[in-house]
Amino acid sequence: xxxxxxxxxxxxxxxxxxxxxxxxxxxxxxxxxxxxxxxxxxxxxxxxxxxxxxxxxxxxxxxxxxxxxxxxxxxxxxxxxxxxxxxxxxxxxxxxxxxxxxxxxxxxxxxxxxxxxxxxxxxxxxxxxxxxxxxxxxxxxxxxxxxxxxxx
Length: 152
Ligand code: DHK
Fold this sequence. Notes:
Bound molecules: 3-dehydroshikimate
Helix content: 25-40%
Oligomer: single chain
CATH topology: Rossmann fold
Structural class: alpha/beta
Radius of gyration: 14 Å
Number of strands: 5
Mean pLDDT: 95
Largest sheet: 5 strands, parallel
CATH superfamily: Dehydroquinase, class II
Strand content: 15-25%
Low-confidence stretches: none
């Protein structure tokens, strides 16, 4: 059997606080439960998911560079760095596979400073506003983009 394609799912600053955030903008599920949900869904799609989170821009850049060698696709929620990081954009532009930008909340319904995303310039597609369900939809789209085969 051919080995399963690997997808990196990279999460930026404060994503580890999902479920604890008092605003309720990011739902009630903990980051850990979202990770488990995504890993389970990826497995049904025939993909190996590497789900990571960092509060540090340089670490995210290192992981995107690592993905050039290790992953067929990237799903990324760069969180607050979405709107500021040219370094993350440049790293994503050097990645040859599909990239899906994901946000839990609908960033266009929020403050104007969240309306411009550097990540979008490198993204194949964007999904926002559907919470963790959107993460699963992003993974389903990714499996089509990289031609993953569901296990029988
Ligand atoms: C998550 C964050 O942490 C915010 O900084 C972004 C994004 C939105 C989200 O909706 O997932 O502005």
